[in-house]
TrEMBL record:
Gene3D superfamilies documented for this protein: MFS general substrate transporter like domains
UniProt-recorded name of the protein: MFS transporter
Keyword Nucleotide-binding appears in the UniProt entry: no
UniProt organism field: Nocardia fusca
TM helices/strands, residue ranges: 31-50, 62-83, 89-108, 120-141, 147-168, 193-219, 225-246, 282-302, 314-334, 346-365
InterPro entries tied to this protein: MFS, MFS_dom, MFS_trans_sf
Superkingdom: Bacteria
Amino acid sequence: MRHWVIAHAVDDFYQGLIPAALPFFVLERGYSYVAASGLALAAALGSSLPQPLLGVLVDRRSVLWLAPAGLLVAGAGAGLAGLAPAYPVVWLLILISGIGIAAFHPAAGRDARRAAGDSTVAMSFFAAGGSVGFFLAPALATPLLSTLGVGATALFVPPAVLTAFVLWRHQLRRTSHTATAVTAAGRDRWGPFLLLTVVAVIRSMLFLGMNTFIALYWIGHLGSSGLMGGLALTAFLVGGVVGTISGGRIADRIGMRATIRLGGVVAVPALVALRLCEDPRPAVVLVALAGVAANIPFAVLVKLGQDYLPARPGTAAGVTLGIAVSAGGLFMPLLGRLADQHGPQAVLTTLCVVPAAAAALAFLLPPPGRAG
């Protein structure tokens, strides 16, 4: 399990590197909010659209090379994007990075579930690995990009190369033991899984909306520096790590469906308090609390999705891990236009109501007991 937690952290570092770099693309290259959100869209398209097909592939074939290869592509695309001189090339490299992320998640989710067994806590550590990667991206990238410029993203390519090599060696050692996906008794329940996917997409819109615009909100509305905006984004993602791990423990006590509802309900007042605070310093504490609330359902969505599709753990992981983190990026151009017209504060106001929709739909989710 340790290998998968570390690999997930490194892989999702590159997904977190994109929103961390967006303010510097805006400040250095004069990109508009719409152009910046277009880069978030490229990441979302790459990492979400291939997920269903890749999930089917993982459920039918061992493809032990897929996760290491995906991690390598994710790091190379995101790292080289800062060196690209023209917007279309930047967009394309970020799209390619997203495709690498899409390749990593189904295989990683399948094998992590095998290692975790039936423990929601264990899966929460795997999911938290991704949250740690998101957290480390602004924490490490913001000082470097502030000092060296947006081209410093290239300095983060070597960790992808090293981790992909180590993970590939780990997969080779497992070849004699693992050839197929984990399966469990019971039939697949596509209706509940599709409803769960809608909940995951709504949560993704909240998570990526905050990732994309929180630093811009600190800079454009609260009048802070780019460094302070990076600190706010880091605080949100640190809260996300705490929320992800806490969600697994809460689910083992009160159940997975109740935990998903809880996350949606507590996120609303946390976001409203953040939006009403006009002082950037105490707002950092509030954005961390919003990160906790927004991520309580994360690991639970992954495990519940695999319980709804017991014969297709790769597909379930690809959708809940991949789409749950990336599909919300499809809405980023709309939020970018809203920010261009009314400021990033309008985006935050809009995001205050998003978790209420996820909580309402979560009440319609059936129990995870498997029929058949």
